Amino acid sequence: MSHWDTFKDFQKKQKAYELVLALAGWDSNTEAPRQSIPYRSEMLSIISGEHFSLMTDPQYKEAIDALYEEKETLNDQQFREVQKAKKSLDKIIKIPKAEYVEYSKLTTMAQRIWEEAKEKGDFKHFKPYLKKIINYKKRMIKFRDDKAIPYNVLLDDFEEGMTIERYDAFFQTIKDELVPFVKQVLAKSKNDDFPFLDRKYPKHDQKDFVDYITNVFDFDFNRGVVKESVHPFTWNTHSQDVRLTTRYMEDYLPASIYAAMHELGHAMYEQQIDETLDSTNLNTGASMGIHESQSRFYENTIGRSQAFWDTHFSALKKRFPDQLHDVDAETFTRASNRVEESFIRVEADELTYPLHILIRYEIERDIFNNGLGVDDLERVWNEKMKAYLNLDVNRPSDGVLQDVHWSDGMFGYFPTYALGSAYAAQIYYALNEALDIDQAIRDNDIARINQWFKENIHCYGSRLSPDQILNKVTRESFNPKYYIRYLKEKYSKLYLED
Ligand code: ZN
User: Fold this and answer.
1) CA of residue 125 to ligand 1 center, whole Å
2) Fewer CB atoms inside 10 A, N or C side of the chain?
3) Last residue of a domain, one of 147, 180, 206
4) How many whole angstroms from 266 Cα to the centroid of ligand 1?
5) How far away, in angstroms, is 248 Cα from ligand 1 center?
6) Same domain, 357 and 275
């Protein structure tokens, strides 16, 4: 067998295991009864073990190394496949197995401790675990590449091509331009009051409206499923099977609507990837950041627009005639874009959201590159919260303990959230040149927007890097100025002009 055939053969087997593991994962997040956990975990750990063996098989590694040597014999797509496989392999194979096993045990334990600490509001309880996780991370980075700048290794794991240098420039722009602008808007928005948000919206009718939205966005039910879960997510194994969930809160109507739109953005991306890529490891989105750019575009740019609610508010009102009897499309749009100072990242609005990420980015960077210690985290967190959002944190569960990410060792992930929004803005200006976004929404023809995304971004899967996609679509590399421009245009119109 040629090296290429060996490589593809292993990939196919790995994908078979991945399909089974993913299906089990979907099941446990949506349908599986609680009591099924112990047996299921044991059985699945066997499948995971087999998958791991396939991933680390010496023959597979040999094939990848050989293909790397003879890369001139490969076409662009084949090289991209090998490159991507090599990157995931390096992440596992360069770390001693014992270290890897210990680390998995540690993070499993740490997540439980984090939950307890958060509940008790006691950062001290979590600190020793966080210290250990960070030390492991630092060691693992060394195993992988002892010459690299440590935090850069983590940043690149979540967003290919991103570095401290590039993120510093991005977040500096946010600090200089957005922090003062947010203060201006907050001074105006504090008088906002939307009493209709406190009314009760039965889940049954919310579900009906989510169905309606799913059709408006042209989601293909022949290749997809929509369900409910506590934490909304999108799941996919290939372009022909893409599933999403939303959550329902009877006392807060926007939750189900915007969670569904967000996940629909992720889901449309996966459904529109060229199906010929399904036999490769490129049949998924280009990166975390590009993926998030799509979800945020569907949620914020389309979903929270005046055009959207001018077109669809009557459909919402039809389902909630009593609760919305005194509300019009404009008020609903305003309520959907309400700007508020908030402690909690996941509850933050579109405008203040990047400031929450700024705090996390600076802290992570300083942990890995500038010797910031765990003992100082709470103090530093609270100082930044005061400086950027003018809030005094009184409980660590509203501050340094609020996110699950660090207890799972996910450092380098947060910045992709803000990056996704910033990509979305850069793409927005390019798309608006190609077609009139507002008009497409008013024509109830989101399919037109989907089609543009399909041709320009989605169809490529991860054949192209994030940089290549941006350059192709917007004719320049990532440039944060579009994000600032987009936010200032949108929120000046909502709050500062009248
Ligand atoms: Zn998302």
Assistant:
1) 30
2) C
3) 147
4) 7
5) 17
6) yes
Are 355 and 409 found together in one domain?
yes
- Whether 280 is covered by a domain: the verdict is yes
Angstrom distance (rounded) from CA 368 to CA 151: 6
Check whether residue 223 and residue 96 sit in a common domain.
no
294 and 202 within one domain: yes
147, 176, 210 - which closes a domain: 147
Instruction: Give the whole-angstrom CA distance, residue 218 versus residue 213.
Output: 9
Active site residues per annotation: 263
Number of domains in the chain: 2
pTM above 0.85, yes or no: yes
Half-sphere exposure of 162 (CA within 13 A, CB side): 30
CA of 420 to the centre of ligand 1 (A): 9
Question: Would you write out the chain's pLDDT as a tens digit for each of its 498 residues?
Answer: 899 999 999 999 999 999 999 999 999 888 888 888 889 888 988 998 899 999 999 999 999 999 999 999 999 999 999 999 999 998 888 888 888 888 988 998 899 899 999 999 999 999 999 999 999 999 999 999 999 999 999 999 999 999 999 999 999 999 999 999 999 999 998 888 999 999 999 999 999 999 999 999 999 999 999 999 888 999 999 999 999 999 999 999 999 999 999 999 999 999 999 999 999 999 999 999 999 999 999 999 999 999 999 999 999 999 999 999 999 999 999 999 999 989 999 989 999 999 999 999 999 999 999 999 999 999 999 999 999 999 999 999 999 999 999 999 999 999 999 999 999 999 999 999 999 999 999 999 999 999 999 999 999 999 999 999 999 999 999 999 999 999 999 999 999 986
Host domain of residue 451: 164-496
State whether 423 and 455 are in the same domain.
yes
Residues 227 and 337 in one domain: yes
In this structure, the answer to whether residues 355 and 474 fall within a common structural domain is: yes
CATH number at residue 366: 1.10.1370.30
Q: Which of 306, 354, 29, 441 is nearest to 171 (CA)?
A: 354
DSSP of 317-367, one letter per residue? HHH-TTTTTT--HHHHHHHHT-----S-GGG--TTTHHHHHHHHHHHHHHH
Same domain, 142 and 184: no
Assess if residue 153 is contained within a domain: no
Per-position b or e across 49-71, b if 16+ CB within 10 A of its CB: eebeebbeeeebbebbeebeeee
Closest CA to 426 of 472, 494, 461: 472
Among 153, 56, 146, 45, CA closest to 105: 45
